[in-house]
Amino acid sequence: MIIVLKAGTKADKIKNLMKSLESQGVDVSHFSDVKRDFLGLIGDTSVINTDQIRAHHEVEQIIRVEEPFKRANRKFHPENSIITIGDETIGGERLGIIAGPCSVESEEQIIGIAKRVKKAGANFLRGGAFKPRTSPYSFQGLELEGLRMLQAAKKETGLPIVTELMSVKWIDEFEESVDVIQIGARNMQNFDLLKEVGKTKTPVLLKRGLSATYKEWLMSAEYIMSEGNENVILCERGIRTFEPETRNTLDIQAVPVIKKLSHLPIIIDPSHAGGESYLVEAGAKSGIVAGADGLMIEVHNDPENAWSDGEQCLTPDEFAGLMEKAHKLASFEGRSIQKAAESLTR
Amino acid sequence: MIIVLKAGTKADKIKNLMKSLESQGVDVSHFSDVKRDFLGLIGDTSVINTDQIRAHHEVEQIIRVEEPFKRANRKFHPENSIITIGDETIGGERLGIIAGPCSVESEEQIIGIAKRVKKAGANFLRGGAFKPRTSPYSFQGLELEGLRMLQAAKKETGLPIVTELMSVKWIDEFEESVDVIQIGARNMQNFDLLKEVGKTKTPVLLKRGLSATYKEWLMSAEYIMSEGNENVILCERGIRTFEPETRNTLDIQAVPVIKKLSHLPIIIDPSHAGGESYLVEAGAKSGIVAGADGLMIEVHNDPENAWSDGEQCLTPDEFAGLMEKAHKLASFEGRSIQKAAESLTR
Amino acid sequence: MIIVLKAGTKADKIKNLMKSLESQGVDVSHFSDVKRDFLGLIGDTSVINTDQIRAHHEVEQIIRVEEPFKRANRKFHPENSIITIGDETIGGERLGIIAGPCSVESEEQIIGIAKRVKKAGANFLRGGAFKPRTSPYSFQGLELEGLRMLQAAKKETGLPIVTELMSVKWIDEFEESVDVIQIGARNMQNFDLLKEVGKTKTPVLLKRGLSATYKEWLMSAEYIMSEGNENVILCERGIRTFEPETRNTLDIQAVPVIKKLSHLPIIIDPSHAGGESYLVEAGAKSGIVAGADGLMIEVHNDPENAWSDGEQCLTPDEFAGLMEKAHKLASFEGRSIQKAAESLTR
Amino acid sequence: MIIVLKAGTKADKIKNLMKSLESQGVDVSHFSDVKRDFLGLIGDTSVINTDQIRAHHEVEQIIRVEEPFKRANRKFHPENSIITIGDETIGGERLGIIAGPCSVESEEQIIGIAKRVKKAGANFLRGGAFKPRTSPYSFQGLELEGLRMLQAAKKETGLPIVTELMSVKWIDEFEESVDVIQIGARNMQNFDLLKEVGKTKTPVLLKRGLSATYKEWLMSAEYIMSEGNENVILCERGIRTFEPETRNTLDIQAVPVIKKLSHLPIIIDPSHAGGESYLVEAGAKSGIVAGADGLMIEVHNDPENAWSDGEQCLTPDEFAGLMEKAHKLASFEGRSIQKAAESLTR
Questions:
Q1: CB contact under 8 A, C31 and A40
Q2: B60 touches chain D (CB under 8 A)
Q3: Domain check: are C55 and C89 in the same one?
Q4: Which UniProt keywords apply (chains A, B, C, D) (predicted)?
Q5: C55–D135: do the CB atoms touch at under 8 Å?
Q6: Which residue of A56, A240, A311 is in closest CB contact with B304?
Q7: Searching chain C, which residue's CA lies closest to the CA of residue A35?
Q8: What is the ipTM of this complex?
Q9: pLDDT at D101
């Protein structure tokens, strides 16, 4: 961290500031050129209170040379993290393919879709039991009953379950019955929820906030990791932009940038990004060639009657068609996707 | 709500769709021009699942003519809502002036500032006990100890307390000891938290999300109100834009637009909007002339040593100077601010 | 300018980089702390090619401590610039009130409106002769015929003319017959046009681009000034944000920030910002209390039949009502607006 | 187009509005449900002045069911447009690969790079002779001398030239010596320039504006096409978002959306999108799998000493490596890229 002081700052003011910084546990060195003085901070600057420094009248600018995250930082963990979920992993050579409906609607529905997506090559089942909805008058999910149905589908197919947690109230139920806890985009900075899932051992799928920067996203991962749970999977699901034709704008560059900054796996959700089924294929394929560790795709047996987000769902047949292409593309990139045949015989 | 159907939609498809809509409790009428068919929905369309409609292949576009919020809507509640908090109100002729430090740091500090801001004309005390911070390594607030100190300051000055709630875990403590529960920008769509504060009777100050639209913000107010708590005060605190010179961009037009759409009071937080103390005056004065019902301003006795956000704090003297101008401006607008003298003799 | 080098950069690489920088005419000093080396550049760094520096593999980060603009910079021109336009000025104690229709529609229309706005206190007449329209099929303005009508209105009322130039093709006609050349938001970075108006002596009203930062805007002013024309007036007209209820978001903080960074006058256009007539008053009043040097307001005798932007126009009576309030508010701020009576007797 | 009228609009007002609309050359039909009246407009609504309609007090909302662009619209031109440029095409089965330096720096440089990129599979040469720079003090390009050098490189290699036009002043020189005229992002709504290139027959590469929507971009294409030049190639080069780690955010969904709305070819510029060379590969590959018709990539023999944008340039060797992968990926997608071998023997 470098602190640029205002031109003409007096020597005693500089000394005071240095002392105050050193008392926070870092080493401070002092340079100057003809016009200005600078302070260079060395040590663990992640604990430095930059708000407090910035409020000093003599401070012109603070420059963070180091990233503010530690556990999520690739510098201190050069190899990729591979997250283990039951018999599956995310972050290794094989892509994680998470598929299923937006909302769990009935036991029959979720089991039916689970079988179809597994057959096509998915190795995880998604389905919302608790739904974050802009309107209090919209369907809010089947809640605990939905969790139970997801478990029934897991029992039937063996697919591990990925589903969203919206309240610390249900954390025990999720720990017990969910394989990957999803934190939604709107809760990316619900720090209380992040800390609580950080105290569990269950892998967490952390969606990027609607207008969050990469660093804010990684700082939210850091919240979870700093409580002891290092099993974090990042999920790019599109960001809000001025474009009204698409629900969100898929930021494909997130993949190489996150890979550079962090060792955590990152997957792509092309369904929420585009918000329309015809956009899923381009997003999914882009994700694979950009180096993503997996895909999260909404599949519904009857999109026209889906209780939520039907517009962006693929039918099971469309999903199977996409998986065929994805399979080849993954090979092209030196990665793999579970084969349809393979999944059937397991 | 108007549903535009794709050109060439068959009559039986239209009939099916109409039936499905009517089963959701609304009346549906069918028009057509030479090229296209339309369906007009009448009744309580706020319960209609637009996701499900949009997923029908024959639907080209859905147009909401009605706003999706009801309890927050001025159409059904033409007069302004006035929220009562102890002996004070927000939403009436007198402006609510909420002032205090970003974080509670000690009992001495919070009592000292409370006395100074009261003397200058504030009628509410703010101070963070639980702090939402981007980094898990930043100071997270004095928590329950901070709440206790706020109460001590209230005892000393009589000023009602406004402070942020980040977790449903502490809701009982807040109900007991806080006069206005603040929901921060990052939690504007933490629907679980909104529902829980909606079950209390304590007035809620709902900050606008970092990149939330007015309607999303009002829908979040609707979440609180739909649980029975109609005491919602909206707070514009700046939105995220491309401008790096300011922390956020104060959206002053929020005041007349919200006043048109809703009966709820709206106040302005110029401290968080600009993020620098020299911007507070312009923001505060703009808020008053635009018709806001109050101001929320950060004041610290020693900004250079504030534990958070010192850069945007006013000193008590600067605050007193601003209040003098605000007082005159409020009169000019036919509103009032408690006089310094008056507050001293209470 | 400070250049942060990557950890472990070799001494000879540093020497080479220093030589290359010195050859660009600046002094370079070299610091280092335990981990890293830094180069501090002193002198006129506005000519330094930062692209070229950034491309060196050993460069980690470049920090501009100085602003990249010179002529527009308040540091080198501490007092406010006052732009003289005929008998009027913008930037001094008296506010510049520019009013008139979006488009010039006929001689009768423009003369009629000019008389009404002058009577109400405007000291400049606006009216579009060349119109930037998103669609090639929309009305593009009366062009040279429109300029002629504006001159007729000036002859009748004495009001100096402000109108938009979209093409270098018409620059001679504008120099001859226009008092203030307006550069529209969409042309803020049409560098060719900026250079050409920079070669004239006519005052230029430079609108902020739809998603431009303050520094980009000031760099565009710098383009004009670097060609010799220092008569630049900045105009904040709202920026693009995610909010669909308003045409643009008025950024009121632009006024104090621009005043801090630059000596150039800045005015507010509340008509384009909000895009609806009911929002004009809040925007105009906010502009005055935030310290703006003037207002630009659309006025039309028959908004329902205006050829463009009728929704945001005030009627002459509404404008006169607003001016009455503006007059008092300006006095409150120690500024003035020409009185209605005064303008009539001139 | 559907016009929603306010509840309670009187019959005579409706009649007047219908007459006024019919006088603009469209058919108008009138519907109503219990609460409201609607007008449906049929015919060429692209000429309707929506500003004027919106200004009528009785109008609540205007809904455009039709797109406002005609010539660029896929509805009226279902097959893909293939643009012919000398012996090459863009929009057909073979991808257009445009490569070269950001700026032309010398004849030797541009010829050297042209040979290298041709050998690697590029079929077009890019290079800036006129450079749009934020600062007037930055290098502005070699101008006409740069054009001459590009022609020398074309003579040597046969590669058609793509270069940016910033001023109508040079349009004759560009028509004579340039194969594809590029319109930069900052000039996307420089309507004067669009009209002028629309009067030529030279193919135009139209970059998307920094925060432009797809429809605004297509309306700018429509400006060019409405003047007679239908040879428009669209180029996605990233949009401005809140993310500071990347220069812009590459919007890969632009490809399928533009393909749906329009018949015009679209290419991807991953160099400007990411702004750093390590991001080019992910962007380029995503473009190919999303269905883009080509790529525009910056290549420089000595990025560290490039006069502009060196940070985002590939070296010729890196470019050759990327082309090898791109070649295979194009085959995978049923498209092709000129083979290195093939280009050498031409």
A1: yes
A2: yes
A3: no
A4: Transferase
A5: no
A6: A56
A7: C42
A8: 0.93
A9: 96
Residue B175 in domain? yes
The nearest alpha carbon in chain B to C274 belongs to B253
Average the pLDDT over D11-33 and give the result: 86
- Asked whether the beta carbons of A259 and A78 are under 8 A apart, the reply is no
Assess B313–A contact: CB distance below 8 Å, yes or no: yes
User: CA-to-CA distance for C167 and C144, rounded, in angstroms?
Assistant: 12
The token pair that represents A344 in the structure block: 């059937």
Please indicate, yes or no, whether residues C7 and C78 belong to a single structural domain of this protein: no
pLDDT digits (tens, 9 = 90+) for A10-20: 989 899 889 98
Distance between CA B55 and CA A309 in Å, rounded?
7
DSSP B239: B
Output phi, psi for A80, to 5 deg. -60, 140
CATH code at position C105: 3.20.20.70
Of A55, A223, A307, nearest to B303 by CB-CB distance is A55
In angstroms, the Cα distances linking D36 to C28, D6, D62, D147 are: 72, 7, 14, 61
Whether B279 and C257 lie within 8 Å, measured CB to CB: yes
Q: Distance (Å, rounded) from C-alpha B186 to C-alpha B164?
A: 11
Residue A304 CA to residue A233 CA, distance in Å, equals 31
- The rounded percent of chain A whose pLDDT value lies above 90 is 74
Do D294 and D255 meet the contact criterion of CB atoms below 8 Å apart?
no
CA-based nearest residue in chain B for residue A166: B192
User: What is the pLDDT at residue C80?
Assistant: 98
Instruction: Give the tens place of pLDDT for each residue, D83-112.
Output: 999 999 999 999 999 999 999 999 999 999
* Mean pLDDT, residues A23-30: 84
Mean pLDDT of the D123-128 span: 97
- Which residue range is the domain that position D51 belongs to? 2-63
How far apart, in whole angstroms, are the C-alpha atoms of residue A192 and residue A171? Answer: 12
Average pLDDT value for chain B: 93
Is the domain of A108 the same as that of A226?
A: yes
B78 shares its domain with B39: no
User: Would you call D188 an interface residue with chain A, using a CB distance cutoff of 8 Å?
Assistant: no
Q: Residues C268-294: what's their mean pLDDT?
A: 97
With 0-12 CB in 10 A as exposed, 13-18 as middle and 19+ as buried, what is A11? exposed
Average pLDDT over residues C231-250: 97
Is D278 part of the contact surface with chain C (CB cutoff 8 Å)? no
- pLDDT at res. C346: 42
Residue A37 belongs to a domain with what CATH number? 3.30.70.1140
Residue C342 pLDDT class (50, 70, 90 cuts): low
Identify any residues that bridge with A29 across adjacent strands, giving them in sequence order.
A40
In the predicted structure, residue D220 carries a pLDDT above the cut 90 = yes
Q: What is the pLDDT of residues B150-163, one digit of tens each?
A: 999 999 999 999 99
Instruction: Please state, in angstroms and rounded to a whole number, the distance separating the CA atoms of residues A29 and A42.
Output: 8
Return d(Cα D29, Cα D43) in angstroms, integer.
12
Closest A-chain CA to C242? A242
pLDDT of res. D31:
78
- Find out whether D62 and B61 touch, Cβ atoms under 8 Å: no
Do the Cβ atoms of D245 and A273 come within 8 Å? no
Query: Within a 10 A sphere around the Cβ of B78, how many other Cβ atoms?
Result: 8
Within the 109-168 window of chain D, which residues sit less than 8 Å (CB to CB) from chain C?
132-139, 166-168
What pLDDT, on a 0 to 100 scale, did the predictor assign at position C28? 87
Question: Do D139 and D160 lie in a common domain?
Answer: yes
Per CB-CB distance under 8 Å, the chain B contacts of D2 are 2, 4, 38, 63
Mean pLDDT of D25-36: 79
- Chain A contact for B31 (CB, 8 A cutoff): no
Nearest to D249 among A251, A328, A329 (CB): A251
Q: Are D242 and D164 within one domain? A: yes
How many folded domains does chain D comprise? 2
For residue A297, the cross-strand partners are: A99
